[in-house]
Amino acid sequence: MKFQGGVKEAAKMLAGLSKSAREKVLDLISKKDPKMAETLHKSMYTFDDLQYLTPMMLIELLRSVKMSDMGLALRISSNELKDHIMKNTPRGMRQEIEELLLGPPQLASKVEEAQERIMVIVREKIDKGQLIINKDSSETYV
């Protein structure tokens, strides 16, 4: 049996815990290794995980982020995420995102910075219970 461990696997396990259990584990880790706790916290959710947001949660997120960041960030995202966002975004916001998405070439570092700015907001909203990333499609949030 092949060992599958590391930060990504640990982050997946943490993401599956309840909020209180996740906070306890991260708190314990941060007492021994604050950098590791931060790395795990950042790794629990990726930009492409936004495809698992419900349309209402996605709109709530879009109200909190800069459209310029979203347009840039989508340049290196999966087609599934692009489709999900464009399909569930109000027309005005969608047009702004499309202009940036299809605009002149940008440095990859700028695009990654835009993704990280969005993910900071996403993690805050998840921690507050305002967003839920549900990767298990058999369960529905209402």
Automatic annotation (TrEMBL):
Gene3D superfamilies: 1.10.220.30
SUPFAM superfamilies xrefs: FliG
Flagellar motor switch protein FliG C-terminal domain span: 29-133
InterPro entries the UniProt entry points to: Flg_Motor_Flig, Flg_Motor_Flig_C, FliG_a-hlx
Domain of life: Bacteria
Protein name: FliG C-terminal domain-containing protein
